[in-house]
Write a structure and sequence with these properties.
- By secondary structure, the chain is of the alpha+beta class.
- Helix content is 16%, strand content 34%.
- It has helices at 22-31, 39-42, 58-63, 174-178, 191-196, 206-219; strands at 16-20, 77-86, 94-107, 111-121, 127-138, 164-169, 229-236, 245-253, 256-263, 266-276.
- A ten-stranded antiparallel beta sheet has the order 1-3-4-5-2-7-10-9-8-6.
- The longest helix is centred in the C-terminal third of the chain and has 14 residues, at 206-219.
Amino acid sequence: MSEIDLSVVGKTNEPVVFDYTFKDVVLYALGVGAGADDLPLIYEGAPGGLKVLPSFCVVPAMKAFPHPGDNIEWSRFLHGEQRFRLLRPLPPEGRLVQSGKVAAIYDKGKGALFQIEISGGLEDGTPVYEVDWVVFYVGGGGFGGDPGPKAQMLTPPEGAEPDFAISDRVAENQAAIYRLSGDLNPLHIDPAAAARGGFDRPILHGLCTYGFATRAIVNGPLGGKVDALKEFAARFSGPVFCGDSLTTKGWQTDGGYIVQVESPNGVVLSNGLALVD
């Protein structure tokens, strides 16, 4: 009998309330590498007020992550892809009401692919963001289900130089800071947990790398205009370690940029597409 519970598909969970202050916004920015040069992202008294990175929406969205079914081993989930879409700017503090659902479960043979959709908005019902996860459940395939649509590949134009390239160093304590925004998986801080996962040391949160890329897009081609980044989707392609350097590259395309992030070990974020105003 399959351990995959298809009955969870399409069921929306009860609304989840997320209250936050400017400190949560600043902590997130610090967690994705912001420093003294990013004053609008880390200082509530900055001229023009505190700016909220668009990818901050993944922090509240995690609280509304739907239950994927009984008899699930969380250690077998691999984070495959991430996407956010902003419908209006995130306020620097306030209350968000959100809900999530398992939109689909596809049979990929060696595993099951879960598509998670979470939406959030203001108390008055005004929609603010949509956040999607794609997670792969190792060993959960073979249940005779729909294999799903073929993944669309998005690659930089061959031989073309990027329109922007921004490098950052991942601090040695980056994962320790980022986890305080709510992702407490010991894989990212505990050497013993990392060893059980097949790594010789803890790896950086994928969503932290995603935040580094978001910050690079905002600070680079968008000139610090956080509200100009409307959507960003990407695939996690390789592990990142604290101490690594990350280079976010972007190639202009219709409506935005094809985005790729590289570390000394190769491409770590691929299939990226940022849509901008």
